[in-house]
Design brief:
Helices cover 82% and strands 0% of the residues. It contains six helices and no strands. The N and C termini lie far apart (35 Å).
Amino acid sequence: LEKYKQLGVACRSAGSLDEKTQDLVKLGVAIGLGSQGAVRSHTRKALSAGASREEIIHVVLLSLTTVGFPSMIAALGWVEEVLSKESP
């Protein structure tokens, strides 16, 4: 587990993207995978990194032409559930 955490830290520090952008990218990847848990987790992480509701919803909308309407709508529901609990 510790080595896995170290790998995550190394990946995050390997490039020039700021924390918020990294979390928004990871949200997009989670949406592409259709992983409910990861979408929820990365939504919370993006909020903690300073992403706005509008930026997070934009990420979901951007997924439409890649993952299709049903998958995008599912992700939107997961994101909106987190947003309703996490932000005013």
